Amino acid sequence: MSEIFSRLIDFLREFWPVRICMAWERANIFRAGKFWKTVGPGWYLVVPFFWEFKNENVIRTTYVTPLQTIDTKDGGTLTFSATIQVEVVDLRAAQLVVLNYDETAVEDTSALLADTLMRTAASLLTPENRSDLLRKCLGKLQEELGEYGLSIRTIRFNNFVRNMRVYRLFNDQIYTNHG
User: Which of 69, 129, 137, 156 is most buried per CB count within 10 Å?
Assistant: First the structure.
């Protein structure tokens, strides 16, 4: 009996013509599969089967990149991870340009930071120059993530260790030729 009641509630929720967008959300409305418009908080009437209402949190969210060890320009190593605050500024782009914008933002940030830090002169990797380095990385991130409707509010390094002893272990199946 409870399963029937649960299915009835799910059916009504799916086909009820009123959709709600909360204060911390924005929603994209699609008509017949095509993007129509982005709306803010409120109640909206939609036509079941023909319109789709996709709402998403747009408040700032903090993400942490994975810990990475890279080789630097001077032949040393750098182990780092970063924290970024991401905010959705264009929900249309966030939902339509890239799949899973939050995961992509973290992956792109990790790759961009590794690439930037790998190419940076050793003199700029010192603690005294960290704010200049962060500003440089923030500008590059804004440009790259802006393509899919995101803005980086802040970026900070959680870990930033130069020339730490690194032991790299590789899985033989990945790095050997089996042919």
Answer: 137
